[in-house]
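During the reporting period the student researcher (J.K.) took over the structure-prediction task from the postdoctoral fellow and processed the backlog of single-chain submissions. One of the processed entries is reproduced below for the supervisory committee.
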Amino acid sequence: MTTVQQLNTQFGISGQLSFREDASGLIVAEISNELGSAALCLQGAHLMTWQPKSQSVPVVWLSRDAKLAAGKSIRGGAPVCWPWFGAHATEASFTGHGFARTVPWRVIESGTEPNGATRLTLRLVPDEKTRMQWQYDCNVDLTVIVGETLRMEMTTENTGANDFEIGEALHTYFQIGDISAVRVTGLAGCEYWDKVGGSNLRKQEGAISFPGETDRVYINNADECVIHDDKLNRRIYIAKSGSMSTVVWTPWAEKANKMADMGQPDGWREMLCVESANAIDNVVKVAAGTRHTLIVEYRAESV
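J.K. obtained the following structure tokens:
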């Protein structure tokens, strides 16, 4: 296992990127430059926070009760869902949303972009347990570029002789003022699977508002979405490519109260998940010798 000292020697960037060991024993990358700041846990390649310097409040939400622990996902940030989204199609014992968010990734590259943003690339490290759940030969890389915007690029490269299908998502939690004072635009006219309403297929009319629990998978759409936040007086723009599904989720009080790490009693009111994904109708076939890349870029502006 690579030590913090080795990571800082090989990949650290003076004044921009350093690595530290959390009390849990997990390693966290800390990024801070003239444009923005972020933290990322190497387990799961899990981006935990991001805040551009132009914003007084973080854009990516991390629960105040979030816990770092070996083999466990972190509540908040941008968990990586791969190689399936939701429950496994045939094996109920397999981890929901795949194993990528709970296993080690290793740093393979770091650098500085021409505009001063900081770049960090990690690769999933397969082990005996993951091979039992996924027998295909492949590389999975996540590149995070932290600056005034946040860009995330997840590439699945099929290095084997057999084609395979993946479901995937960047399950990003956004910091909002209050769930009752936000709406999401960009998905009007789209069909979605309503997982709260009995997994029925419905059509979105106008902007999305949140009077209660919401869990929807919008399909066959790659358009930019916007979170309009009337309490924080800002908009968060979510632009993507290589993603044909968008998941919109808020647990609401009853479900959130069953999650010990959500930030009780009202942490759920200050977050909204808008996830760039390929799920259900939009799972991706990755042919042998080819690659697929999901890219998302976030930016925030005050209004």
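The committee noted the following: Residues 4-302 form a domain with the Beta-galactosidase; Chain A, domain 5 fold (CATH 2.70.98.10).
J.K. will present the remaining backlog at the next meeting.
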